[in-house]
Amino acid sequence: MSPPKLSPAVTPPETAPQSDLATLLAEPTPRAWFRRPVVWGGFALMLLTAVGLWYWQASRSADAAPNYITQTVARGNLTLTVTANGTLQPTRSINIGSELSGTVLKVNVDVNDRLEKGQVLVELDPSKLRDQILRSRASVAVAKALVEQTAATVDEAKANLVRLEEVARLSGGKVPSRTELDIARATVKRSVANYASAQAGVNDALAALSTDDINLSKASIRSPSNGVVLTRSVEPGNAVAASLQAVTLFTVAEDLTQLRLQVYVDEADVGSVKVGQEASFTVSAYPSRQFPAQITRVGFGSTITDNVVTYLTYLDVDNSDLSLRPGMTATATITANQRTDVLLAPNTALRFTPTAADAGKPAAKSGILASMIPSRPGGNITRKSAAAGASTALARQVWVLSEGKAVSVAVTPGISDGRMTEITGGELQAGMQVITDQKKAAAK
Length: 444
Description:
Oligomer: single chain
Distance between the termini: 85 Å
Structural class: alpha+beta
Order of helices and strands: HHEEEEEEHHEEEEEEEEEHHEEEE
Strand order of the largest sheet: 2-11-14-13-12-15
Number of helices: 6
Number of strands: 19
Radius of gyration: 56 Å
Largest sheet: 6 strands, antiparallel, barrel
């Protein structure tokens, strides 16, 4: 039996002309909605917008969180130094001058010449001194002649007294008179006194002659010790006037192989400086060379310069190679204290304190809806310092980074070199990340 034939579909009268028209114009058949690019483009645009909003929210949360700069705590060596400026001077310098006034006849040495003890440096014109010696010798001769004269007078007076006493004895006291005997006795005493005076005059003349001889010897100025001439301020023909004080002609350093560095230590550092400490210094002539030195004296008397109190300190310097010269300006670095294999923390970490809102603050909430939820009260309460209950007055604190949060750790600082500080006690350990600074969040 054959299947029944289907009757052809009846086209509605109102759509038939449109279908025929579309067929006649060869228009394509309309696509399904899920195949249209406009729909997928709108969906992609919405997706990009959502991703952009999420990225904006995440970056905003990251910028709002605190950003810390840290440094790793480690063990090492620490040296406490004190810096001071000063000048190099000889350990002993001698100013050689003239006790006499006169004209310089000859100068035998110059600057940098090496001297030996007793060597003649300058000769003054001795003409006047020699004349003075002749005059003094003449005075000695006159004084000695006067002694002889007074001695004869004494003998004459004594003989006259003996004669008068013999006459009085023979005459039974009738002649001479008592007055004549008293005058004779007085004459003897006077002549004896004149004799003593004449002898004193001889001594005075001899002393004057000796002084003139000494002055003549001082006309040749000699070196009092071995040394080196540092300065010379005299030339042949110069007039030397020593009426008020000795004129300095030469400055002589006794030994240039040993020098003394005189530095002025600030009052804030003088408590750390002690006799026997080692030091090093540099001079402009050798900027890359370190010269060793040792402290030998720390002055108790202060010096005030521009309202700054300093203390004069001496350092002995070995100058065997004679590379250093007196008068050089030096910058000394004194080793006041040393520590080996100690726990070190940067000074910036000891000075750092995070804001109260960032110290131990939990991570920021993510998402737009989550940001609208009110936070739990008490989130901005200031954290109590970990060093608040420490038993020592030297206890302080540092902040370490732990799981993204700033956590305070109690420490006891020791000496500091201005950059690093020794940690002598507390909870800080090597390897911890101490916070040295905090970056501000960027403004949005």
